[in-house]
């Protein structure tokens, strides 16, 4: 592998490793925030506030990504999350599964990506170095 190609591969692996870390730690922080918020409301009101994955997705998409009256894929997803007309079983699953579990699973996936690409990057860097034992 040429030096230039090796450098480009190392850069891609480093970006993917950083993306994995961003997903892992961002989802973990969101998970901890959500659980803390739910515990706070439980102590205050005496009732557990259920927040499903569909509630979380709808909240995030409407606050940052989709304006009222918008068209496109994201707007269609928002309308489906609000009032589904098909894929009702999938929608019901997203309503029932807590958002905290979804965030925790996303954190685990991001951590897997981070560790995998860190190992790949370490392996490539070891291949480029001469053997020190010789």
**H/E element sequence:** HHHHH
Portion in strands: under 5%
Total helical segments: 5
Let me know the largest β-sheet: none
What ranges have pLDDT less than 50 throughout 5 or more consecutive residues?
A: none
Specify the structural class. Answer: mainly alpha
Q: Quick check: average pLDDT?
A: 91
Counting copies of identical and different chains, the oligomeric state is single chain
Classify the helix fraction into a percent range.
over 70%
How many runs of DSSP E, i.e. beta strands?
0
Distance between the termini: 23 Å
Count of individual domains? 2
Globular, elongated, flat, extended or rod-shaped: what is the shape?
A: extended
Q: Give Rg in angstroms.
A: 21 Å
Written account of the structure:
This protein is an all-alpha fold. The chain has two domains: 1-49 and 100-134; 52-97, no CATH class. The chain is built from five helices and no strands. It has helices at 3-45, 53-65, 73-82, 88-96, 99-128. Helix 1 runs antiparallel to helix 5. It is extended. The mean pLDDT is 91.
């Amino acid at each position: 592998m040429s030096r230039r190609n090796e450098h480009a591969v190392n850069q891609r692996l480093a970006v993917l490793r950083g993306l994995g870390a961003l997903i892992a730690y961002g989802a973990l922080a969101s998970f901890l925030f959500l659980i803390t918020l739910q515990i706070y409301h439980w102590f205050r009101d005496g009732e557990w506030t259920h927040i499903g994955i569909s509630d979380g997705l709808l909240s995030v998409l409407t606050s940052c990504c989709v304006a009222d009256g918008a068209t496109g894929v994201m707007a269609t997803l928002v309308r489906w999350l609000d009032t589904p007309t098909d894929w009702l079983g999938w929608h019901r699953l997203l309503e029932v599964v807590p958002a905290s579990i979804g965030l925790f699973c996303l954190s685990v996936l991001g951590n897997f990506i981070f560790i995998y690409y860190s190992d790949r990057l370490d392996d490539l860097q070891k291949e480029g170095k001469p053997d020190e034992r010789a």
